[in-house]
Amino acid sequence: MKYIYGVLALFYGLNISAQQTHVITGYDHYFSPDTAYVNIGDTVRLLSLGYHSITEQDSIDWANNASSDNGGFWIGLGGSGDWFTVNQSGKYYFNCNPHAAMGMKGVLYAGSALGHNEETNMDEFKVYLDKSNRLHLDYANVKSVNVYSITGKIVYTILLDCSARSKVVDLNFEKGIYLVSFLNENSITATKKIIIQ
Q1: Neighbours of 6 (CB within 10 A)
Q2: Residue 68 to residue 125: CA distance in whole angstroms
Q3: Domain 120-197, what fold?
Q4: What are the start and end residues of each CATH 2.60.40.420 domain in the chain?
Q5: CATH code given to domain 20-115
Q6: Which of 24, 30, 125, 152 could form a disulfide with 190 if both were Cys (CB 3.0 to 4.6 A apart)?
Q7: Pick from 109, 135, 124: which is nearest to 184 by CA?
Q8: Long-range contact pairs involving 47-50 (C-beta distance under 8 Å, separation at least 24)
Q9: How does pLDDT run across 71-128, given as a tens digit for each residue?
């Protein structure tokens, strides 16, 4: 009987240790991170440094920079912070209501929303601009890339050969903030932000 209790205690301890705590912080017009990957049971701490909200929204409101919430997680303008435990898989969209149009937006991917695997390595997806504002994409097993304007409109899309590892794109976009979204062969989406100056 002591053996069974010992095994149960060990299992419980391993289960607790597998859960992680993540922090999403609102800074001066951006979130860090603005794309986060968590598992069911993980804890997320929301912090606002400055006069910002962290407001969960529906995807359509998020894309349209609406000043609304969907009744999910929320801290108000200048709020000191809050904690919540992720108990359902899905995509959680959030923004700072007053600064969404300036690009202060993010997405939290939880559990099965990540695809077949519950974790992905963000280092597999890299994006940067060279001095000529050409967009360099480095990736692994990516099917497509979409580039969104800060208003949520798709301004560029390309289908890719999954065996390729990189692509250079001449953008010719106006100055501003854009979101580059990679979709890999396991239907995992990774989003990176770029600023064209």
Answers
A1: 10
A2: 31
A3: Immunoglobulin-like (2.60.40)
A4: 20-115
A5: 2.60.40.420
A6: 125
A7: 124
A8: 47/23, 47/80, 47/81, 48/75, 48/77, 48/78, 48/79, 48/80, 48/81, 49/25, 50/26, 50/78
A9: 888 888 877 678 888 888 888 999 998 888 888 999 888 875 444 333 455 667 888 8
